[in-house]
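Help needed: design a sequence for this.
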């Protein structure tokens, strides 16, 4: 399937999605978000790959929403745009594959939201992150949701209230990204991380991703009770049985989705 605003490739159980509006700094237009949601759900349903890497073509990861669409749209159009973005974030969360944001250049507003919503993120050391909506009178309320769940309340509010850039090294310290590497090593480092995860069972990865987000806001022992049920059921899967036998027999496991 061809896309107008995206590029997509699969390689060794990893899917690579590239935002492809370099002339608009990969702004998240209605059309791009619709394509991205459709593609993510397709990946999740087909299960051909075990990991998804999300990156940008050109000099920028993503500058956020297309402000021209917001300025020119009716209130109904704007609501539809933000609802479409909501569906994109839901797709990132709900597909079984972990989504890794590969960040270069800038990730601002909804572009920063994409990074925060991803399961993992690798950034070039010259990458910059910001939620600058306050500067144009449009507070970054939707990016605030995932941002505040990544970096903590005080730092999130600082970013939201000042609109200033957070350098990659600071983003690493505050938990917005997992790893920071020299620009020339960004592609290799992201592929290496994706490759490590892609060695494992998608059944186990998907169950673990779903359970992680289900338990994260529960009280400790409510979470432990839930996790106990999940891991008990997980032991009955074909891949868990194979993995345990392989460990005991000192051999490499053969996953059902390999």
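Sure. Designed sequence:
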């Amino acid at each position: 399937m061809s896309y107008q605003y995206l590029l997509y490739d699969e390689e060794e159980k990893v899917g690579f999605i590239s935002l492809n509006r370099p002339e608009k700094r990969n702004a998240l237009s209605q059309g791009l978000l619709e394509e991205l949601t459709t593609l993510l759900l397709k990946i999740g349903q087909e299960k051909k790959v075990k990991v998804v890497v999300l990156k940008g073509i050109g000099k920028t990861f993503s500058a956020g929403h297309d402000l021209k669409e917001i300025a020119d749209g009716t209130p109904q159009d704007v609501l539809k745009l933000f609802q479409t973005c909501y569906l994109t974030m839901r797709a990132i969360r709900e597909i079984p594959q972990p989504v890794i944001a590969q960040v270069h250049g800038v990730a601002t507003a909804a572009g920063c939201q994409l990074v925060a919503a991803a399961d993992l993120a690798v950034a070039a050391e010259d990458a910059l992150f910001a939620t600058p909506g306050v500067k144009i009178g449009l507070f970054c309320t939707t990016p605030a949701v995932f941002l505040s769940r990544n970096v903590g309340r005080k730092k999130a509010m600082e970013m939201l209230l000042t609109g200033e850039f957070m350098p990659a090294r600071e983003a690493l310290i505050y938990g917005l990204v997992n790893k920071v590497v020299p620009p020339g090593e960004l592609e290799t480092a992201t592929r290496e991380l994706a490759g490590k995860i892609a060695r494992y069972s998608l059944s186990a990865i998907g169950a673990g991703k779903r359970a992680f987000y289900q338990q994260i806001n529960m009280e400790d022992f409510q979470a432990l009770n839930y996790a106990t049920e999940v891991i008990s059921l997980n032991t009955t899967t074909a891949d868990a049985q194979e993995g345990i036998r392989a460990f005991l027999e000192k051999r490499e496991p053969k996953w059902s989705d390999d």
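The chain has a mean pLDDT of 97.
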